[in-house]
Phosphate transport system ATP-binding protein
Amino acid sequence: MATQEPDDKLISTEVSADETVRNERPDETVLAAKDLDVYYGEDRAIDDVSIEIPENKVTALIGPSGCGKSTFLRCINRMNDQIDVCRVDGDVVFKGKNVYDGDVDPVALRRKIGMVFQKPNPFPKSIRENVTYGLEVQGKPATEGDVERALRGAALYEEVHDKLDTSGLDLSGGQQQRLCIARAIAPDPEVILMDEPTSALDPVAASKIEDLIDTLVEEYTVIIVTHNMQQAARISDKTAVFLTGGELVEFDDTATIFENPADSRVEDYITGKFG
Ligand SMILES: Nc1ncnc2c1ncn2[C@@H]1O[C@H](COP(=O)(O)OP(=O)(O)OP(=O)(O)O)[C@@H](O)[C@H]1O
């Protein structure tokens, strides 16, 4: 269920020093949706969305339950291909190439655009095998260095370096989620999609993931769906607000969205008048 924060005054858009540096960098588009419509059978879930996602920034997707945030996220790396009734019209251009072109291999695409889900979902395999999986399906043997690099990148190495051959399922929820992040970054992606990555975690584990996102974005572009508006305000540089019917109503700097949105529907949503 969606949890909404009722009072906009509670939403601080104070930025970290790292974010200030990031915000001073000009936006370079890494990924763009153009006139995107997504249908499940006859029902439209995304309505004519165009958006340009900047590189090495955190973009948050917010909006009420059922407005199409996860659908949009899944379109980016063609996870929607796995849903029979789902049909996509329009383009998703990643580094100049429409990911829906016939010659794009979705499996290769998903290594460049990795994904982390709401519920930590490590494979029932060792910590090491979880990390090496993405490289080995590419036919690339993974080295110890690759494993260490991915686990360090996910701020997990110190906690697991002496038990790499134990099951990933024996870790705590927060550690499992960082293992999933390590698995996503092992093949050296450019974009990491996160679908409510902290909503199944306790506040301490969630806070670690938020800190990690702040580090990840130095190297990767992060696009995160969150129901938690404080979280969007805390960690993102840009915020896209979707509203019912799959319409992208406003996309701007996070501070602008939370402090001075152009669209009154966004203001109503942020102040808890609906959603
Ligand atoms: N596999 C599916 N088959 C049919 N309809 C679907 C499917 N997945 C999503 N939908 C519909 O598409 C619309 C958008 O759903 P989606 O999950 O993308 O929204 P959301 O904003 O991520 O919602 P929430 O915040 O509750 O997770 C909803 O009406 C939903 O019922």
In short: The CA atoms of residues 261 and 267 lie 6 Å apart. The chain is about 35% helix and 25% strand.
